[in-house]
Write a structure and sequence with these properties.
Elements lengths: L11 H18 L6 H30 L14 H17 L5 H12 L1
Helix pairs in contact: 1-2, 1-3, 1-4, 2-3, 2-4
Length: 114
């Protein structure tokens, strides 16, 4: 697996593939004929929303570990690589341990947009 400069591998493509596979299986088990393109779009949107909600927490954790944080946000940090690293860490965590309702939320979104 290729490591990025900041140390955390970029798992977004793997995460999207995994989410698409699981969501399509869930939809098929409920009698739907899912459209892969719609599922991919919905999965990407859900992942982007999750990252937007949590990457500042990751960014703060990175800064705290380095002893530099005082409840920072990306508005106060102008290091694009550090922000990318924080986002990659959120994606890695989401890939390894998705929230309990993550797939179901995407299923519901896909049903609504279908």
């Amino acid at each position: 697996m290729k490591k990025q400069k900041g140390g955390t591998p970029d798992l977004k493509d793997k995460l999207v593939a995994e989410v698409v596979k699981k969501v399509m299986a869930l939809l098929k088990s409920r009698g739907y004929e899912p459209d892969r393109t719609v599922i991919e779009k919905t999965a990407n949107e859900a992942i982007d929303d999750f990252v937007a909600q949590w990457y500042e927490v990751s960014l703060e954790a990175i800064e705290l570990k380095d002893g530099e944080a005082d409840f920072v946000t990306d508005d106060e940090i102008d290091d694009p690589e550090l922000i990318r690293e924080a986002k990659r860490r959120v994606i890695k965590e989401l890939y390894e341990e998705p929230p309990e309702d993550f797939y179901e939320t995407i299923v519901q979104s896909a049903i609504v947009s279908h």
